Each structure stands twice: as structure tokens, then as C-alpha cells.
Amino acid sequence: MIVDRGRSWWSSRRLRLRLTLLYGGLFFVAGSILLWLTYLITGQALNQQFVTGFRKIQNAPVDLAARPMVEDVIFQGDIESRAGNVLSEMVRSSMLVMILVGVVALVLGYVVADRALRPLDRVTEAAQRLSESTLHERIGLRGPPDEVRRLADTFDAMLERLHRVFDAQRRFIANASHELRTPLAINRTVLEVSLEEPAASEDLKALARALLGTNARYERLIEGLLLLAQSEQELTVRRPVDLEQVVRTALEQIDLQSRKRPVTLHQDLRPVLVEGDPLFLERCVFNLLENAIKHNVRDGEIWLALRRQGGDAVVTVRNTGPAVPPYEVDDLFEPFSRLDGDRVRSFKGAGLGLSIVRAIVRAHGGQVTAVARPEGGLSVTVRLPHGLS
To answer: Is the dihedral angle over the CA atoms 318, 323, 329, 332 positive or is it negative?
Structure first.
């Protein structure tokens, strides 16, 4: 946990640290150049003022007998040695001062970078909080109309457009839910009444039963489309959910023995808590089981497992069934997609089951994957973050 926090701090401060190192590096490069130039200028000045001046005095026309040659040589060497010591001391002092000032420059560079990037932090925090339920929030950055202010204003304008789009989508789903379900419910009622009519002929009853089957398929299709649209939106309910209880509730809704192709279910369930919408999670598990039953063989088998792995809740559903080409597995999660690209045989469903599963899992911040089993059938794995502290 401490390592993760350290990595998070480093990631959030990476740009600041890069700018600080850039400022410090430029300072040390400029300081090194300045120190080198100062060394050259000072050395040249010492050479002109002392060494060259002494040589001029030494070369002046004086009485050779009066000039103490040995003392001159000793004095010249002493001057050159002192000049070299002055240069060395200057270099050492200058380097020490440059290091101290460089440390101060690094600190000031970090402070300046932090102050300059602080408005960008507000934009980043707003983007991280962004969800369908918080689209009404705005950054509202104040200050001069510089590049950061223009970025914040552009982000606010984008949020306004997204807010209008999501509002329109919610209204459309609510209206479509009413407008599409009502006529189908009326048709179903009329057909059921006609079947109970004593005077109705057998041909009329056969037609009514056929129309009831068609009406039921359309109802399932509309329910699936509406559920797919709702599950792709932001979750309005988030609370701790016992996923084992959700799985058992979904199992109660499925009768494995009443179908034309009875299957055997093997369960391995363990208590796991997640955070999310229990109704959506129940529909997710139900669709996984229903898909495993529909696309199975006679006397087939289903293996259902629920466990915690790496801090996440993992639901795995494996089933026997026809062979699935590996290159078609990913396409099965697309709406209206069926095995072998079949869009005609709708008696097995509308091709929305796995699409709804993927939408629900993504809304909960999880992942869903599928693998074709060599023996036939699929192995679908849903991984949900626990979301609980």
C-alpha cells in the first residue's frame, strides 16, 4: 500500500519534477560556463598585472652588477605560484557557491513549476470526477486569459455539450420504454383474450398462438435494447452487494430440467462482496447462465464458479456446446451478433445477452473476457473490482 502511494505521488508530480530538473540543469550549465569564463578572465588579468609586469621590470636596462639575478628568479616564481593559488581558491569557492545556489534554484524551480501547473491540477481533478451524474459541474477557472484558462474554458464547454446529450438520451430511453412496451402489452392482452374465446376456431387460435410467440420475441428484444441502453449509462445505485446471494437469486430464475436440452450445473460459490447495482449484477449473471444453456448440447454441462482473486470478484461460467472459432469470440459481445454470423435464427434470442453483460460489467468498472474451449463451448470470465475499503 505504501509502495502504491509512493508510485501515485511520483506519477502525479512527474511533470513538476521534470521541469525542476530542467530548471536546475540549465542553471548548472549556465553557472559552469560563467565559472569557466571567469576563470579565463581572472587568469588573464593576473598574468597581465603581475607576471607580465614583473617581466617588464626585469627586462628594463639597469646595471647588471646591481641586479640580484637569483632573487629575481625566486620572486618571479613566487608571484606565479601565488597567482595560481588565487585561481584555484577562486574556482573552489565559486564551485561551492554555485552548488549552494543551485540547490536553492532547484527548490525555487519546483515551487515555480508547482504554481504554474496548479491550474492544470484543477482540470485533471474535474476530468477524474467526470461521470454522467456530475456533468453539471464546471471548473470555472479564474485568472488571466492565458493558455491554461483557455483549456479550462474549452473543457467547461465540452461538459455543457455532454450534459445536454446525456439528458436527451435519458429522456429518449424513458419515452421509448413507455411507447414501445404499451402497444405490445395491448397486443398480448388481445391475443390472450382471443385464445380464451369459446367461439374461436382452431385456425384462429393457431394464428393467435403464433402471433403471441412473435409478440413475445419483440418484447424480449425491446427489453434487451432498453436494458442495454440503461446499463451503458452511469450507475445510479452503488452499495455493498453480496455477489454469492446475487448468483443464487439468478439461479432460482432458471429451471435447468424443463428445457428441451437438460444440462447439469456444477457450482463452486464463495462469499464475495462487491459494490454496485444488485439488479444489474443479477441480470449479468442471469444472461451468462442463459447463454450457457441456450448454446449447449443435449445432456451438456455448465461450470459456475465465484471466487475472490487479487482483491477482485471473479465469476466464471464454462459450458459444453458447439465448437466456437477463436476469431469469432470477440464478435459475440457485439449487439445482435450470433455464432457464424447468423442473424436469421432468432428463436435462441436477439443476440443481446453478452452485449448486456459487457455493458453492465463496464459500468461497474470491471472486465469480461471469453475463450473458446477446445472441447466446444465457451469459458466466460467476469472480473469486478470489490470497491470496498
So the answer is: negative
